[in-house]
Amino acid sequence: MKGDAVVRIRGDRDDVFSKGFLCPKGSTLRQLHDDPDRLRRPLVMRDGVHVEVEWDEAWAVVADRLPAVLREHGRESVGVYMGNPCAHNLSPMLYNRSLLQALGTHRRFSASTVDQMPRQVAAGYVFGSPATVPVPDLDRTDFLVLMGANPYASNGSLCTAPDFPGRLEAIRARGGTVVVIDPRRTRTVEGADRWLAIRPGTDPLLLAAMVTALAQDGSIEPGEHVGKHLTGVTEVVAACAPFTPESVAVATGIPADDTRRLARDLAAAPSGSIYGRIGTTTAGMAGAAFGTATSWLIDVINIVTGNLDRPGGAMFPTPVAGSANTRGRRGSGSGFSTGRGATVVSGYPEVMGEYPAGAMAEEITHAGDERMRALITIAGNPVLSTPNSVQLDAALTQLDFMVSVDIYLNETTRHADVILPPPSQLQRSHYDLALLQFAVRNVANYSEPVLARSDGQPDEWEILARLGLIAAGMGLEVEPAAVDEVGITAMVHASVADSNSPIHGRNVTEIMAALGGQAGPERLLDFMLQTGPFGAAFGRNPGGASLDALRANPHGLDFGPLQPRVPEVLRTPSGAVELAHPVLLAELARLRDALPAAATAAASGQLSLVGRRDLRSNNSWMHNIEVLVKGAPRCTLHVHPVDAGRLGLQTGGLARVTSRVGEVQVTVEITEAVREGVVSMPHGWGHDMSGTRLTVAARRAGVNSNVLTDEAVVDPLSGTAVLNGVPVTVASC
């Protein structure tokens, strides 16, 4: 700092977890804060143009128009979309729920269904809770398989590990092995021991064949520890039997010998695991999606090789602030289910309280009298990040009312009648409530706001709380602090009444007094830390976790490496790891039916489109930061030289890429970074729309790959869209 200005940002070398590692998002928070395009005051649409107004005027518009839609058309006429940044911000993590409850709508959508939802659904069925996602124990493993993941570009996701690339290098330095399975020769491949260039979307075929190879070798060994709490292995092995390394080789592009070698090496390693990410959860094969099946089969492999819940294998974090698998009765529970409601048009079932993001457009345009008439977006840009973007962009023009909580006037918020900007990242406190649930070490770290908020600028939690008050019919008279008071009081009462809580039987007034009277996320966070698995429990465990303890330790608190947690981590009805859940077993029959079409597509030379990420521009909102987008254009179509020669393409020339739903023209880049039969475009570009305020991004607009993705192809168990493995044709322009 120099006075009130940020001069430089670097990682904290004394941080107990990061050791100073910093990603580009963190290093450019100053540029984001100072960006002249970042909204400082609310915008209201007048005569088709967004104009700046004071907060009181913006709230008056919301209070007038949102309740009017609710009164005339009911609660289900309003939808909510929550974007990726919500998972990185403390206020949305703690206050989005109260907003959703106040709205009373089931039409909830988020970035989860263009990202990680299949991984959580699989975990829900197998372990009883979608929060119970095993992560690779990177710092102790001997053999790591990465599927559809590129940590050198995007670090970790559903596996929080600062300096993921450095941890991979450490595996090899201590004599371990890293294998990458990916259609692209990524930077991660260059740092690995082995690369299997799989055809997009065929990951479940490879995994099922590995199960069969292990069975044929007599190497199905879950181990004594997990084996005592495990059901369904025999059923799963039998269901995988039709998938042999030989039968899937044409479809996957992986020779049978390589599949068998991978299975044997993983089984023989002292410890190891498979880690799958967005390339496995959002991939399609032969016009079908198997994201949840793939995530499940990753668990199957980790379990049958004896690598679940052991050091160096796939382990369960113990979040310091608690989670669904640290609270309540240990070792069993009600399990996981979906289908509490369905979309009107296509009948997609509810999953984890939401519907597929790809269904938003049709719920606006084709649901008749039940159509969605109003929309609230929170920190998201679905016009660029969800399937068939042209369709959604057109649908948003048909809404009666739209309000966005966002720092930018972007491709999505340009449709909003009111935009309510939260403070910048430097003006808010931070605790990684979501990401630390998937950390490779049990740690906690809290950051105070670096900069003060501007005069009159509400905190983000206050914006969300006031939206909820308006939706609940309480107008503008009640202050957001009232929402907070109701929420924290309910949490304390519930915890005191819970026989499994560390403050069971305590006096509610005593606990409330200890928490203090300051409304906001810090009070909620303190309560979660104090009642978490390492918590101070309001004096019962002196030296335990609390907000005061984190403030006194600005470099964080380290509660040690991951520890075995089976069976207490389980929340299944049986109290066991339920490997052969009927819903998951049924996916193998569907996978078997899809195998011939996948083999035919591979043999015919059908091109598959996959995405890619760049270290400096993982998300669309980063494209307005000059330092992150400068240099050679990165929004190009990667094409293998063999395919380029066949199609008559040249580097620097234009190609026309066509899918079932759309067509784009994009600059060609011929490279061996993709395997034959695969073309690649980055995700999140397409900043050439009118009505936005993204000066830097507009100069490097790029092409929106989601013009090509198909909203009708989704994983049936999770509702997740296919962003990778999209069938396309490519021709020279």
From TrEMBL:
Q: Which stretches does the entry tag as region Disordered?
A: 319-338
A Gene Ontology cellular component where this protein is annotated is:
membrane
Matching entries from PROSITE patterns are given as: 4FE4S_MOW_BIS_MGD (PS51669)
Q: Which residue numbers delimit the 4Fe-4S Mo/W bis-MGD-type domain? A: 1-37
The species this protein belongs to is: freshwater metagenome
Q: Where are the transmembrane segments?
A: none
Q: Which Pfam families match?
A: Molybdopterin (PF00384), Molydop_binding (PF01568)
What protein is this chain from? Unannotated protein
Q: Which GO terms describe its molecular function?
A: 4 iron, 4 sulfur cluster binding; metal ion binding; molybdopterin cofactor binding; oxidoreductase activity
